[in-house]
Amino acid sequence: MSFIEAKQLVREFFRRDEEGNIEGVQVALDHVDLNVEQGQFISILGHNGSGKSTLAKHINALLSASEGTLYVDGKDTADPMNQLAIRQSAGMVFQNPDNQIIASVVEEDVGFGPENIGVPSDEIWQRVEYALKSVGMWKYRTHSPNKLSGGQKQRVAIAGVMAMEPKCIILDEPTAMLDPNGRKEVIRVAHELNEKKGVTIILITHYMEEVVGSDRVFVMDHGKVVLSGTPREVFSQVDVLQKYRLAVPQATKLAWELQQAGLAIPSGILDREELLEALKACR
Amino acid sequence: MSIKLENVTYQYSPDTAYAITALDHVNLELRDGEFIGIIGHTGSGKSTLVQHLNGLLKATEGVIYYNGQNIYDKDYDLKDLRTQVGMVFQYPEHQLFETTVFEDVKFGPKNQGLDDKEATLRAYEALEKVHFPTDYFDQSPFDLSGGQKRRAAIAGVLAMKPAVLILDEPTAGLDPKGRDEILDMIAEMHKKSGNTVILVSHSMEDVANYVDRIIVMNDARVAFDGAPKEVFRHYKELETMGLAAPEVTYIMQELQAAGFPVSVDATTIQEAKEEILKVFR
To answer: Which of B273, B275, B278 should we substitute to test contact with A (largest number of A Cβ atoms within 10 Å)?
Structure first.
């Protein structure tokens, strides 16, 4: 069994009038099939309202499905008895770092999660150290979170999830509010946790550049997974992505434009090194 | 007609141990009809700067002139200034509150003291400007998609007919198509009305694609001020400030280093494409 296994997952939201009668139904997830293996780095793309965040909230049992099944780490998310265990094995980081940090000192914030589930004190400190070192924020452990930059705050939020020793971290647009450096920091840390600690990463983003290093990319539209594959496979389809209100990384776009203009450049260029090589070969 | 800042300094918590200088003797002239981008890392002072332009923050030192008048003069009408200089904050949809989109957009002009008929007209005009679909005028603003909420919120500010429009990261959290739509809409409006538009952004690509002038804030000071091409020529210095140039600028630099006879000035994909194709023709 895969680490995450969704079969024909459906989620509907109902809009009700004042008496509670159902006025309208919105299908946020429409028969989604999805498998993620332990240790993979996965990205999910899709326009606003395509169902990405709804899917993510199912993976750590914040929402439950209307139809279909979803197993996380071998556990059925529909069973309320499994919810706490699932939330520990699949942690979530949200868009706005300021909404997720609660303590006035960095190390206390990171220790809050394990303390809350009754981890013994000694072990809490071990976990805090491990988590803060994993995201490169150990030297800020006694700082106040509100004096940190956006990228640093977001790394503290990730450390807070790491202290729960999750097998999987879901990052829901973690870089939407950050400047270019902060964005790079957060994505680098996500890749490090994936490579060095073997944490399964699920990254939801609107920045196409951040997706390039993933093992697999899923594209969602109207609650369905409409495209999936390696970044190269997905970004080769520039016009298809545009139809889904998405884009491709700038280097990919430029390569595609040059190819359309008649240069012999292969499809699916992912970064500027590849573009440079392709242009040298054209010469 | 312009906004002029002379030696503007702003300190948070002045005269305490926690004093932070967010603006340090800033001198700027924002001329009428310009489309300006302000960039800078988090905490560089860009939001503090724009909050001075409509008098939300008062400079600790220095003077600001709006159309030649000192806005810190005793009898200066700050309320009027705030209707002249409209501000769209980050995540403006969080400020939607009325029962319908139309009522929400009408609130601003009504608050300015216009009668119902005039306010209705203004709301209609503003919603049209942001290409908001007529079918949704009477919907609750809370049932809209992210991009539509953002449009409705921007319309709410436009309905007050500001001469200067400031947008603080208007595209944060939107999908790529939504980003393009909002920015195209702003650019189109700027072109038609000739208003001054000030765009605060973290996206170098967006800034390169749309604005005529970039102001780079760093450590509470203006680090660079000029056309996108001039500013992005300093990409190495920008990196030390936690910023970057658009991806295509790096591509052009690398091509030149690899011996391609290209100019490195391109900042948009279109310009880069033309420049590269020249080599192969």
So the answer is: B273
Q: Range of A100's domain?
A: 4-248
Confidence of residue B14 (pLDDT cuts 50, 70, 90): confident
* Interatomic CA distance for residues B138 and B80, integer angstroms: 30
Give the residues of chain A that fall short of pLDDT 70.
none
Q: Which two tokens stand for residue B52?
A: 């001075």
Residue A274 lies in a domain: no
- The number of folded domains in chain A is 1
The answer to whether residue A256 is domain-embedded is no
Mean pLDDT value of segment B206-218: 94
Contact B176 A250 (CB under 8 A): no
Which stretches within chain B are classed as H helix? 46-53, 78-84, 101-111, 116-129, 146-158, 176-193, 204-210, 228-232, 235-240, 247-257, 269-280
For chain A, say whether B126 makes contact (Cβ under 8 Å).
no
Q: Which residue of A has its CA nearest to B145?
A: A49
Taking any CB pair shorter than 8 Å as contact, residues of chain A touching chain B are 15, 46-50, 95, 149-151, 173, 176-182, 206, 208-209, 242, 245-247, 249-251, 253-254, 257-258, 261, 263, 272, 275-276, 279-280, 282
Is B176's CB within 8 Å of A245's CB? yes
At residue B51, does pLDDT exceed 90? yes
